[in-house]
Amino acid sequence: MTEQKKSFDDLDAVKALVEALEKFNDEERIRIIRWACERLGTKYSAVENKEKLIGNKITDQQELEREKKIEGVRNIKAFIENKDPKNDTHFSAVVAYYYRFEAPENERKESITSQDLNEAARLAQRPRLKEPAKTLHNAYRQSGLLDQVAHGKYKINTVGENLVAMVLPSDDSRSTTNRKTNSRRIKNKGKTKRK
């Protein structure tokens, strides 16, 4: 009996993928492939270094930094070290972001609790928070980085996402302070006194 050829084999898939990605630049291609892998539940660790993609030589130090960034996606300790939060509320936003977007699929959570915060501190080898529930509440009420979804449960909001994804790590604490002040102003602007 002869073996029947698959109607769509690996090479056909590669050809279709290449045709679909031809219109995009290298950075967009990596992002699209990563998203597709996430959608399919497939593990994928791409070299997301522009210099590597365009064929430039990179130093050993750059290679170590690249590996640290890739590891940060899979490992909360490396992710927290990479983001380098300067205070406890930023730490809580980093932890919430990690569990919502960066953790392996089987560890992802929409919201975190004080236990999650303490566990993250332990895994990251940081000092444990004295009052993790209060830290989460402050990140919600004062800093506007988290939203409360239930008693003791908080999820990262767009302000927190922007802080973690765009600002951290940052040496410019002034700009972070301005963002917190602005987010509080926006939050309080909609509130009016009732008689």
Describe the structure.
With 195 residues, this protein is mostly helical. The protein folds into two domains: 34 residues, no CATH class; 120 residues, Orthogonal Bundle (Arc Repressor Mutant, subunit A). The chain is 59% helix and 5% strand. β1 and β2 form a beta hairpin.
Bin the strand percentage: under 5%
The spatial strand order of the largest sheet comes to 1-2
- Please state the second-level CATH architecture of the largest domain: Orthogonal Bundle
Q: What quaternary form is this?
A: single chain
| Main sheet record | 2 strands, antiparallel
CATH class designation of the largest domain: Mainly Alpha
In sequence order, what are the helices and strands, one letter per element?
Answer: HHHHHHHHEEHH
Helix content: 55-70%
What characteristic shape results from the CA principal axes? elongated
Regions with pLDDT < 50 over 5+ consecutive residues? 47-57, 68-73, 173-179
- Number of structurally distinct domains: 2
Number of helices: 10
Secondary structure tally: strands? 2
CATH structural fold name of the largest domain: Arc Repressor Mutant, subunit A
